[in-house]
Amino acid sequence: GENVEQHPSTLSVQEGDSAVIKCTYSDSASNYFPWYKQELGKRPQLIIDIRSNVGEKKDQRIAVTLNKTAKHFSLHITETQPEDSAVYFCAVLGPSGNTPLVFGKGTRLSVIA
Amino acid sequence: EPEVTQTPSHQVTQMGQEVILRCVPISNHLYFYWYRQILGQKVEFLVSFYNNEISEKSEIFDDQFSVERPDGSNFTLKIRSTKLEDSAMYFCASSEQGSGNTIYFGEGSWLTVV
Q1: For the CA atoms of chain A, what is the radius of gyration?
Q2: How far is B33 from chain A (nearest CA, A)?
Q3: Pair B54, B113: CB distance under 8 Å
Q4: Which of B42, B99, B107 is opposite residue A97, by nearest beta carbon?
Q5: Which residues in chain A have Cβ-Cβ distances shorter than 8 Å to B35?
Q6: What CA–CA distance (Å, rounded) separates A98 from A111?
Q7: Measured between alpha carbons, how far is A7 from A88 in angstroms, rounded to an integer?
Q8: Which of A74, A97, A99, B4 fits a 20 to 30 Å CA distance from B31?
Q9: pLDDT tens, A81-94?
Q10: For chain B, which ranges sit under pLDDT 70?
Q11: Which H or E run contains A95?
């Protein structure tokens, strides 16, 4: 099955700096790569996603890049703010409608004011 | 914006008791899922459900677990005889289609087995 590795497990940045979280996956047929933000005790909330036919996608301060050849994708948050502090999960979905979404282990991001 | 809704938000149960967690997926969605998250750990897939049957399940989803769509709107997860290690947040999710479609999560049901 799909194996998703996420790094780093924790990340502290100063407010205003950028944060980068990276994930690798194993199944080259996987075609959908969402990122979720989870605040304490809350549900995972989709913040950005990318499909395999696109190399980069940006939404305001958040961007995701995908390298299909290397089987890795990254989340970039620029101009970080304290409210960006949360656990971020990458996930990978395979090509079949039956394939479950497989999550990485999460990155706890702390933005220090 | 439509949401996946779950009940109860929190349940405490004695070990060995049966528990039913309920979910109402987004109305036009066809794929339904249960995930769980043990405190401080990653979100883990349990089961997916499509066209009134299980389409895939993980090794976590053993004979103690079952899912059902008893009517046109509810999607339930039953744990027959709860164990301490079943204590976790259980998230229901749904998507309009399967592959490549955004999966929306409910707020979760926090299950504590004592």
Answers
A1: 14
A2: 8
A3: no
A4: B99
A5: 101
A6: 37
A7: 10
A8: A74
A9: 999 999 999 999 87
A10: 98-100
A11: none
Contacts with A, B 61-90, CB within 8 Å: none
Residue A14, classified by CB atoms within 10 Å of its CB into exposed (0-12), middle (13-18) or buried (19+), is: exposed
CB B75 within 8 A of CB B91: no
Distance from CA of A65 to the nearest CA of B (A): 17
The string of pLDDT tens digits covering residues B82-109 is 999 999 999 999 988 766 678 899 999 9
Which residue carries 């999607």 as its tokens?
A: B75
Task: Give backbone dihedrals phi and psi of B56, rounded to 5 degrees, phi first.
Answer: -155, 150
Chain A residues lying within 8 Å of B108, measured CB to CB: 42-43
Instruction: Please give the single-letter amino acid code of residue A7.
Output: H
Report which of A77, A93, A5 is spatially closest to residue A37, judged by C-alpha positions: A77
> pLDDT at position B98, please?
66
